[in-house]
Amino acid sequence: MRTRCVAGAKTTEPNPGRWADAAADASPYPVVVLGADGGVLRTSESARVLLGDLPPGRPEAVRARLPWLAAAHVALGTDGVSPDAGSGDRHVRGRLDGRSLEGRPVPGADGSVTWWLLDDTDRWRAERELARERERSVFLAEASNRLLASLNVERCMDVIVLEAVRGLADAAVAIGPYAGHRLKLVSCVRGGSPTAATTTHPPDAVPGLAEALQGFPPVPSRWIDPAAAPTWLVPEGFGPVGSMAVVPLPGPGVPAGALVLLRHGTRAAFDESEETLARIFAARAGAAVSSARLYSEQAAITETLMRELLPPTLRHTCGMEFAGGYRPASEQNRVGGDFYDVHPATAEQSDTLAVLGDVCGKGLEAAVLTGRIRNTLHALLPLTTDHQRLLNLLNRALLTSHHTRFATLVLAAVRRRGDQARVRVTSAGHPAPLVVRADGTVEQVPTHGSLVGVLPVVTSTTADVTLGPGESLVMFSDGITEARGGPLGDQEFGEERLRDHLAGCAGMSAETVVEHVQMIAAQWVGAKRHDDMAVVVVAMPRGAHLSMTGGSGPGRYTA
Amino acid sequence: MTAPVRGGTSGTAAAGPPGGDAAAPRDWAEELWAPVAAGDEDAAADVLLAALESGVDAETILVDVVAAVQRQVGAEWAANRLSVPQEHAATAINERAIAALDRHPLVVAARPAARRGLVTVACIDSEWHALPARILAQVLSLHGWRVDYLGAQVPTQHLVEHLHRTAPDAVALSASLSTRLPAAHTAIAACQATGTPVLAGGAAFGPDGRQARRLGADLWAPDARAAAALLDEGLPRPARAHQPVDDLPHLSDQEYTLVTRSRSRLVGTVMAGLDDGVPTLRGCTELQRQHTVEDLGHMVDFLAVSLYTDDPSLFTGFLSWASGVLSARGDLALPLAPALDLLAAELRDFPRARALLAAGSATVPRPPGPVGAPGDADGHGQAGR
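Output (structure tokens, whole complex):
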């Protein structure tokens, strides 16, 4: 893109002055010949037009009119460039009366230098515009990255004002749509941090603001008279406002709010390209804040619906420890097809009932059915303490519903008497629970039965188990025993391995056993896919901590 | 996994209560150790409450007593004096003792109104050691922070969702085992991508925090007290969102990916090679075999994490620990030197892995004579001694 200097003829001819004068006057470029002292020796006609009258032999006159050229001339002399040396890379550029000039030196034998002056104002303007454009692109790219980073509305508003003061204005105020009767404001002054506030002031006082907040009728960004701005809009400590603009933040379909940009008096109002920049920025900010708003609304809905489906936090009750742990098959869902519940003893029912079950399928759909089963079971509890009957009632309820899924479950009715607990355990198509004895022996509970939701009648056998101090009943879903992984990659975890690990868990609290089983299983599967994994442990506290019997907390310091 | 041997005693000097018996400060960590090791929950809580009532402040109890005892639990496990379930039980006792402490009126009264911002405290995905994070959560709330404590093993996706929903001022991520560092890296980058600064903590990040810096965490603290002090000083501007691979350009050689992906195959092949070359392994029981296979898996995991971080000390550190503890286990265990040779043969096309294995070989004791040669009674290395 460099302009080639075609007038690079060497001035070593005899009687160079006359030749140069003639050649220079005929040249399309202005020419100034400076002596070794920096004063003007000769100027061409075009140079006189360009520079005005420069008195000959007065270096200070050159320094005043063309300081950059005078400096380059001195530098050239100091460096001792010989007249024969190439001078192509000694170009200098500088300004003169709003134009840009390039000076190309041709050193003479007598220490004088002929400076050819090329007017490259257009190139200079183009370059300046390009540099600004690049700056804006970089600003927009960085701003977009930061805007898209968070799906949190408050964080997003903070980023909007921070970015606005970084690249657009001396202060910025982002105004969100109404929350109740209040407007939410986030303001930031350059160099400061965003501060949030709310106001009940009507937005009508600011021209264009009410429309921008409603999203209708569509309004362009507009400059407003700073004097008309209400004081609540100007960030504290900003001082006098020079200029002020209201830019709507458009969201897809919904108004996302408005952005108010403020500049100090010393800075001029926006030029056209800056306004374009502000508009593009506002469009991206609006899109980001509406995405964040949609996300938080969805997240709130999901959370509300999910709360019922999440496995409950089990508490110690009736002198026994209950603990449960759950790991859904996919990380996307926090819920899945396994479920558990503990229903503490009541006046009508002297047993505490622990339930662990597994609905065929996984993910959200299975979770919805687990919710139904849990509710149904809860409703049926007062009717009967007989497991067989309970399972058949549940079976009937499942058969009549339009769901085609079935479930397996295990019931454990626990009652503590002194130093012993009697547990009636019934499995309906579910892996039989294991009992960890105080000496580390692990026994399988002899119970089996058919699954629920398929056949007209459920048949099952109930086993009676007695737990002494430090002994526990471990109920688990097949997601644990059928987990594939291990050091060799594709081995099944298996009940044998589970028993081995449980053998080391004698005398431990219910939570510890749950955590241990969960950890072992998680380590076994590693990063591989796995089914839902649930485990519930009922433990008789070791040593008869009387304090544990009445309390509902995990220890005796519940006061 | 190489926990400091003992950290409790130094803290107790600082814990000397202003009005207490200065002549004979009680070594609370020492007192807590017995009930924790014995699994006596009530006695453990009694020690903490006695310390509190004698004038030791809650932060000191958490950092200099409970955390110190927990470090000892780790050290005892590393030295093979505690089984994994026992380690779990001891940790659970500590957790419950903290809960008891938390409910004590003196602690409730000492907790300031939440006047600072919100901090999310979580263990990274696949990290089960929740106690350090739990202690940090307690200490931060004692400093007036609002704390969201998410517990152990938080999938990164859930963590990010939580950050979007709650927009905390910072997130504190805990990781204890070095092999979790790749998962920690993912979590750190994901949190930073939401514009949340990350404070990293836990043994996995190294005693000097070098792994935290390597993985691009904004802050690192050696313990809960230092972490709280850092956050109290003021939060850093969130780091510019970046791609995790920018932190670790060496990952472009894909050695980590390929080794991780072929983990099961490597373990299988090396085990078969050991069966052929180490006669003493032939007579071992199924359970011993299982242990050997598991240990091989750990070896490959540590090799992988060394490849990920480009830090050989993680792999060599594992090997020198394993040389000690596997011999302490007493039964027939993983013969390290032959296993390293077999791995090196499998990974001959991977220059970084090869260099790591060579460095590893230099740290494990070599049996005399040709490795695994027929008739070499000591062919399984140091483990049988």
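Chain A touches chain B through 46 residues (CB under 8 Å).
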